[in-house]
Amino acid sequence: MICRLRKSLPIRSVRRFRKGFTMTEMVVVIVIISTFVTMAMLNLVGLFGRGSFKMQAQELADTMQMAARAAAQSNQRFEVIIDPVEQSYILREITGSNLAEVLEEEIITENFLNDDCIIEYIQFDDGEQTNQHRARFRAGRAGWAYGGKIVLWNGSENYSIVVNRMNRTVRLEEGDALLLTPKAPDEVPF
Known about the structure:
Blueprint: H1 2-8, H2 23-73, E1 77-83, E2 88-94, E3 107-112, E4 118-124, E5 129-130, E6 135-140, E7 143-144, E8 148-153, E9 158-163, E10 170-174
Antiparallel strand pairs: 1-2, 1-6, 2-3, 4-5, 4-8, 6-7, 8-9, 9-10
């Protein structure tokens, strides 16, 4: 009988396993998670930086388009003044005869670009180009007085805002866009 009793008792020589993680395992998991979080944050910062640049470029293009639309729908003239030195632009409704004077009550919107979006240069479709003086794009009921492009830069990429005086459109394009210029009368074949 004693032999039978002994066989029914469990053998305690099997080692018990502890439940949970060791300190080393926890540190490894934390290092891996922090590495993934850091990589994701760097990607998001880059994404938002590019978005900010494109958003500012789009906002300027929308301001230009708003001037063209408002002029086409009314008898008023509008002007977008772009200042590459101050890195700013103004949309105004022209109310007086002195085009050089900007009255406070004429200003519809005024914006400054941040360091992520720099006005590299402005070129008109007559060949004139500047990065030191204010450029004025005027829109009336018949369309833009001048066409041209505004090239914006963020240190690594460009966007161009192209103003077409022939069809009143304003487009935002990646890169330094090709500007169509009108031909001189002696170059027209007919």
